[in-house]
Amino acid sequence: xxxxxxxxxxxxxxxxxxxxxxxxxHDTLHGTHRGVVVDSPPGAGxxxxxxxxxxxxxxxxxxxxxxxxxxxxxxDLVLRLAEKQPDLPVGRLHSSESDPYDKALDDLPQVxxxxxxxxxxxxxxxxxxxxxxxxxxGVEPWRHAIVDEAYQMRSDSLLAVASLFEQALFxxxxxxxDPFSIVGADQWAGLSYDPSASAVSTLLAHNPQLxxxxxxxxxxxxxxxxxxxxxxxYPYTPFRSGTGPxxxxxxxxxPSSGSAPDRVIDEAAESGWGLLELPARHTPRxxxxxxxxxxxxxxxxxxxxxxxxxxxxxxxxxxTADRVAVGTAxxxxxxxxxxxLAALGVTGVAVDTANRLQGREFDVTVVLHPLSGRPDAxxxxxxxxxxxxxxxxxxxxxxxxxxxxxxxxxxxxxxxEPVQLGVTVKFPDGWEANHSVLAHLxxxxxxxxxxx
Amino acid sequence: MNASLxxxxxxxxxxxxxxxxxxxxxxxxxxxxxxxxxxPLDARALAALAANPGCERRTLLxxxxxxxxxxxxxxxxxxxxxxxxxxxxxxxAFEARVKSDGGTExxxxxxxxxxxxxxxxxxxxxxxxxxTARTALALREATTAKAWTLLDHPMLxxxxxxxxxxxxxxxxxxHPDGHWTVVxxxxxxxxxxxxxxxxxxxxxxQAAVYVLALERVAARVPGAEVGHHVLLVCxxxxxxxxxxxxxxxxxxxxxxxRQLARMRRVEELAAALPGGTSFDPSGSTEELLASVExxxxxxxxxxxxxxELAFHCRGRAREAGAVEALGRSVRGELGGLSTVAxxxxxxxxxxGDPADPAVAALRRAAALRAEALAARGGG
Amino acid sequence: xxxxxxxxxxxATRSGHAQPLATTRxxxxxxxxxxxxxxxxxxxxxxxxxxxxxxxxxxxxxLVVPQPRDRDLRFAFLADLAETVLPHLDSYADDTExxxxxxxxxxxxxxxxxxxxxxxxxxxxxxxxxxxxDYVRLLxxxxxxxxxxxxxxxxxxxxxxHIPLLGRWLTHYGxxxxxxxxxxxLCATDLLSRHWATGQSSLEDLHLGALLAWIDxxxxxxxxxxxxxxxxxxxxxxxxxxxxxxxxxxxxxxxxxxxPAIDAYDLARKNFAGAEDGGSADARLGELAAAERHVxxxxxxxxxxxxxATWRALDLVRALPEGPRAAERWTRDRWSYTGHRxxxxxxxxxxxxxxxxxxxxxxxxxxxxxxARLEAQEALDDPLVMAARRLTGEAFTSEVTGVEPAWTxxxxxxxxxxxxxxxxxxxxxxxxxxxVKVYRSLDGGSQSAEFVRWEAAGVLTLRLLNAMGRAKxxxxxxxxxxxxxxxxxxxxxEQRGGAKLPDxxxxxxxxxxxxxxxxxxxHERPDPITPDDLx
Lengths: 452, 379, 535
Hints:
- The complex is a heterotrimer.
- By secondary structure, chain A is an alpha/beta fold.
- Helix content of chain A is 33%, strand content 20%.
- Chain A has two domains: 14-218, P-loop containing nucleotide triphosphate hydrolases (Rossmann fold), CATH 3.40.50; 225-447, Rossmann fold (3-Layer(aba) Sandwich), CATH 3.40.50.
- Mean pLDDT of chain A is 92; it is low at 1-7.
- Chain B folds into three domains: 24-82 and 265-328, no CATH class; 86-260, Lambda Exonuclease, Chain A (Alpha-Beta Complex), CATH 3.90.320; 334-378, no CATH class.
- Chain B is of the alpha/beta class.
- In chain B, the strands form two sheets. In chain B, strands 1, 4, 5, 6, 7 and 8 form a six-stranded mixed beta sheet that branches.
- In chain C, a hairpin with a 6-residue loop joins strand 3 (48-54) and strand 4 (61-64).
- Helices cover 39% and strands 17% of the residues of chain C.
- Chain C is of the alpha+beta class.
- The longest helix of chain C is centred in the middle third of the chain and has 41 residues, at 278-318.
- Chain C has helices at residues 3-15, 71-90, 130-144, 163-176, 188-195, 208-215, 223-232, 251-273, 278-318, 324-345, 357-381, 383-391; strands at 19-20, 34-40, 48-54, 61-64, 96-104, 111-119, 125-127, 185-187, 196-197, 395-404, 418-422, 437-442, 445-456, 459-464, 485-489.
- Chain C starts with a helix and ends in a 46-residue tail after the last strand.
- Classes of the chains: A alpha/beta, B alpha/beta, C alpha+beta.
- At the B-C interface, helix 5, helix 12 and helix 13 of B face helix 1, helix 3, helix 8 and helix 12 of C.
- Chain A: Keywords: ATP-binding, Helicase, Hydrolase, Nucleotide-binding.
- Chain A: Residues 293-403 form the DNA2/NAM7 helicase-like C-terminal domain.
């Protein structure tokens, strides 16, 4: 493999990213292919790219539809478009259920909202979810589409909307959680159009000649995180951070009390990573000690007067609750953490599962390791995308809470996976990625026996 | 290639261990029974190590070359395996068919334009060491010759826990560019392009062991590179015509590398055993029972299809009331509770800390279950 | 496995007897099921060895292939199988009732109701085990592309009539199994495991003999003991006391009994073919018949235990009262049967080897809908299933403690009453940003409400959203009253179908465009047969 551009001396992240973006926009606006695929690692400016491409298409007089996967993603894009170009007429196609869109859209006069596509005809940019677009029939196809989070979109979902546009820009992060189905889909494994596969894999299987681009710079992940995330989760498509080690600084006004939570906070502030390791024990998912430790770390993060200095502003930004998130694997774990935080009087911290944190960004994240305390590793807990999402939401630091013994658990994990002929192997797999992340975290370990 | 995906630790550096290996080998021979030759570790057995790497009993017994089938029979829980002669004959007939005419059909599956022109050196020799040496020479010559070459049943060696394991892939093909491809021939069908995923998975793990062993040879041959994609050859649909599919074994390789590296534990496990421990099947049942119990097992129902000793271990796990006897996943929600009695006592309020979420959930489960069953009784 | 089912397994382990997992029967059972117990030849794909088949448990039909490597004998077996199975499948085809179906009018593109026939009942096929289901699918695949002499006079090895047709039906049944909750083809092990928990793992439950032993052990024996014997017990000759329920045979049976019997049959056949005169031919024929009878006896002895076990499993499951919504799902099976009947009658080609892009997506979408439907319906039909959903916070029982009228603040106010309930369950109602909806059964349908807030521990308020009529005030009986006990679910009771997918000929470029349509459709080509195709 040739050396990735990220390793070249004199690498100018801004220039590299601009070059990549220019190439993408050129192919989108002037290319001859029906599709353009863009891989975007965490925080590489995917939404910025989508907004920019939409605005350039619109200003070139080429109306377009935008397909996102969730209502929150659609609303976020609408707000970003409005922020960039307040006079651009935008259509928000929504479902006919109650509360179908973010109320903030009601304050934007240029955004027309409707549950019927016909009401939005003639508007330059119309946005909706893939599920809603799938119900739109009998309209003139759009010349252009932008499909956001295309790696999280299922192939059958693309099948249902692809007749609505002539050509499209597909943007997404291949390292995050794959789409899934609630019933078995093995009978189609290996087919180019396996309906349970990702939209991008079907698209490329049928159109291998499409130009594929990659955003090479993560503006979110700090210099301390980009190499690890890139090596562990994007081994064949490396990226680097847009900022250097000196560009970000996390500091605390209140000095450490010497407690383990404070020490792991200081380790993470210093190095970008912290591992708070509890004694080995098999626990239920809502391990009270781990949940308690997590809540205490969050409490201390907020109590110690944190300040985050970054390239965005000359002055440090106070580390307030809205800049901190807690990530878990399961919903009941998130619920337990919320309860523990409430008991400590913490409000305003986002607590959610990896699935729901996808695409979001915080200064500091505190993560309950998916394998902590488990007697067995399952495919769910080993899924590469889950760990990748949890380890790549932060701008400054990530603190992982975990019970000792996960390395052993991984080593003892039976390797008897079935193999389907013709299915492209996703690499690295979660087992390997977990090993490499743990090996790195071990260098930032603070051991703690709660209650002692 | 990225470092994190790299070749990993060499499982058993053969040269460095020459001295240290002798005592281990002796110790393992004692465990096996002095008169018993080691049960050969083939690729299938090595691949099976990954089926339950947490099981120390299996690691030790396999590492020591103990004949587990004979041991299981001596313990009174014989393994129910065996191969039907119909399947055996079919497998042999299919492999012979694939390799007939100098392997031209096989080479054609690899896309070789002129398979008749391919070289097919003879790699037979006396004894496994001789065949291994002959194979290494043939691979070197073929790589130098830059011509398509088919090696039928070559022999490779891989040192595992101080003992060489001799491995015999169905075939290895050397490409003119120095690429080596492992070929696995199986007699399960590829039906409309797909095959039983469990069987393909097992074949991939087995092929990964061959790739590892080949890499040891390739390291000493300039210009040689072992492909991490192998060719799986199976009968097509309901016929006996061969068809092929290329299988990416990178995942299996990284797992096998790590597990082989962990085979060093065999020495530690052997050293920790009390004196007088022996797995010689000619010993008395009581002695064998004590010896087998001296090393821990990690029984799970999946073992039943993968290990000759499984029925013995199942019996012990059930006697001990281990919840894993009901399946690995059962442990998932039980936290620190690990026996049937502990769980049921906790569920019915006879024991357990109600502040433990596992205990609390079990009590709610028991109450909800009782309520629903009572509702049925009452109509 | 859910914790409540884990608990049931542990209880079974301790007691030595299976424990109930259901209080009602969640699958429709036909009054006249066709049971099929197939055996296959080890190592050969699609080389059947024998079968017991029939609707009368006292009189199964035994079909045997005395030499499975002989294509003619295999064809004869399949022809016999078709002769037994097809009349049963056909016997339901003409008893129909009128029904309505939504179709798209090709002229206007509008959805219109069309009057069609729906078969009043459908034939049900039962096999012993899950691998038996796979085998039905494999048989279907191996037969449906065969050509009979009538279809193709030049076919090198023409199949007997009806074989392709049976292949299509078995393919249909094998594919229908993949629809959650479908009951056209069921296996005894799944039926039993759905309704009982044993004290062994789900892997071990795949063994019909062992599974049945846990649920219905012989008098005076614990389920655990009986299961162990069924699994591993062997007689003095090393043969299993309880032979596997197929299609795979025990290797010890193959090697010790079957292989010599087949060799003897081969020899007898050779001798018969070499007989020189009428007299010796008669004698040789007698030897051949005896050799064949020996193979039949051996296979019959292997098959009968599974045959009886399958019928016994049906008895046990039938003793449970059928869940009300299982009948509704059976109606879908009747539609499925009727639909295939229509396709066969219309002369459509056999099912393709691989689904098209649109076909695969349609199947996946409908199976996901059916999965959600099945989960909801089983919970609504069965308090024990609902208990598992309550345990995971997806449902809760409650008592109404207060009702407060309220209306929307729109031009035409519609009722949105607030209902306060008390619950001892722990529903997962909040925390995230999204609005949580809950549902309850009402008048054969369901009513939805949204979670408003927790008032106190165990007390919460809901706002009713629909099913209260069109007037300003709610219709009588549509709003709960204080003291009512209500089970709310966080999952909807009914499923909406997904979006309509494009027609196959409109498959978009992202999915390879429309499938190629040429005269010689690749999907329909018969499997190539080579002269040495002895298997």
